[in-house]
Design a protein that fits this description.
By secondary structure, this protein is α/β, with parallel strands linked by helices. It has one domain: Rossmann fold (3-Layer(aba) Sandwich). The chain has 9 helices and 9 strands. The strands form 2 sheets. A 7-stranded parallel beta sheet has the order 3-2-1-4-5-6-9, sandwiched between helices. Strand 4, helix 4 and strand 5 form a beta-alpha-beta unit. The structure holds NADP nicotinamide-adenine-dinucleotide phosphate. The site of NADP nicotinamide-adenine-dinucleotide phosphate has 29 residues, from helix 1 and helix 6.
C-alpha cells in the first residue's frame, strides 16, 4: 500500500477504473503530463502491469490500489487514505459498468452494486479530497458520467439515473466551489471503444452506427484539455454529441419521449 508521505514533488492523480478503457487512457495521458498515479480497480494484476509500464516509460510513480469500489470495505479505506494525503491534485471518478434489460428482470444485487459504484463511491471520494484541495486552493475532480445522463432509456434505467446524479452533483458542486481554486468537471462521452460493451455482452456491430463511436484517447484528451485549460464544467467530447445533447435538452418533451421509447425498444 502506498504511504501518504512521499519525496516526489510531482502532483498525484487518483484514477478509479484504471485497469481498462477510459480509465487506463487517463493513466497513460496523465503519466505523459508528469503526474504520479494511484491506480484503482479490482484487477490487481492489470493495475500492476500498467503501473510498471508507466514507471518505465515516463519515470513517474504509479502504484496499484486494488479494490472493489462497490463495497463499503473497498471504497471507505480508499476515502480515508485520500483524506490524509497532501498530494492529491486530481481525482478521476471513472469506474463504472452498464447492464442490459428491464429493471424487473435484472438481479437486485447487480442494480444495487451499480448505485454504490456510480453514486456512493464518487461522492465519498470527492468528499474525502475536497477539504485539502480547498485549503491548498488547488485541485481538480473529474467524474465520468455519459451522454446517457441527459436522457432516460428503457433497459437502462439505473445507468441513466446514476449518470444523471453524477452530472447534477458536479454542476452543483461547481457552484459551491466557485472562487476556491478547486475545479470540477463531469465528462459525458457517447459510445466509446473500450471493454464496456463487451462486459455487457452487447454486439457492437449491431444498432450503433460507425460515426457514433469515439476513441478513448480523444475522450480523455478533450477532458484533460478542458480541466487544465479554461474548459466548461460539463464536457461532451465530439461535435456530433454536443449537437445530440443540445437537441435532447431543447426538443419538446413528447418528441424526446417518442425517441427514447424507440431507441429503448431497439436495445432490449
Ligand atoms: N464506453 C462507453 O461507451 C462509455 C460511454 C459513456 C460513459 N462511459 C463511462 O466511462 C467509464 C469507464 O468505462 P469504460 O468504457 O472505460 O469501460 P471498461 O473498459 O469496461 O472499464 C471499466 C473500468 O471500471 C472498473 N470497475 C468496474 N467495476 C468496478 C468495481 N466494482 N470496483 C472498482 N473498479 C471497477 C474496471 O476494472 P476492474 O474490472 O479491474 O475492476 C475497469 O477498469 C464508466 O463510468 C462508464 O459508465 C463509457
Amino acid at each position: 500500500m502506498p504511504t501518504t508521505k512521499s519525496d516526489s514533488t510531482r502532483p498525484l492523480a487518483v484514477i478509479t477504473g484504471a485497469s481498462a478503457g477510459i480509465g487506463r487512457e487517463f493513466a497513460r495521458q496523465l503519466a505523459r503530463r508528469g503526474f504520479d498515479l494511484l491506480l484503482v480497480a479490482r484487477d490487481a494484476e492489470r493495475l500492476s502491469a500498467l503501473g510498471a509500464e508507466l514507471r518505465a516509460e515516463h519515470g513517474v510513480a504509479a502504484d496499484a490500489w486494488p479494490a472493489d469500489l462497490s463495497r463499503d470495505d473497498g471504497m471507505r479505506p480508499l476515502a480515508e487514505f485520500l483524506a490524509q494525503n497532501e498530494r492529491v491534485t486530481l481525482l478521476v471518478n471513472n469506474a463504472g459498468f452498464g447492464t442490459k434489460g428491464k429493471l424487473a428482470t435484472r438481479p437486485v444485487a447487480e442494480q444495487a452494486t451499480m448505485l454504490e459504484l456510480h453514486v456512493m463511491a464518487p461522492m465519498l471520494l470527492t468528499r474525502a479530497v475536497l477539504p485539502r484541495m480547498i485549503a491548498r486552493r488547488d485541485g481538480r475532480i473529474i467524474t465520468v458520467a455519459s451522454v446517457a445522463s441527459f436522457t432516460a432509456s428503457p433497459g437502462n434505467v439505473n445507468y441513466c439515473a446514476t449518470k444523471a446524479y453524477n452530472r447534477v452533483f458536479t454542476e452543483g458542486l461547481a457552484l459551491e466551489l466557485s472562487g476556491t481554486g478547486v475545479r470540477v468537471q463531469v465528462l459525458c462521452p457517447g459510445f466509446t471503444h473500450t471493454e464496456f460493451h463487451d462486459r455487457m455482452q452487447v454486439d457492437k456491430s449491431k444498432g450503433i452506427p460507425g460515426w457514433a463511436w469515439l476513441e478513448a484517447d480523444r475522450v480523455v484528451r478533450e477532458s484533460l484539455d478542458a480541466a487544465f485549460g479554461n474548459g466548461p464544467v460539463v464536457v461532451i467530447p465530439g461535435k456530433r454529441y454536443r449537437a445530440v445533447v443540445f437537441a435532447l435538452r431543447y426538443m419538446p418533451l413528447w418528441v424526446r419521449r417518442l425517441m427514447q421509447e424507440r431507441y429503448g425498444r431497439a436495445r432490449i
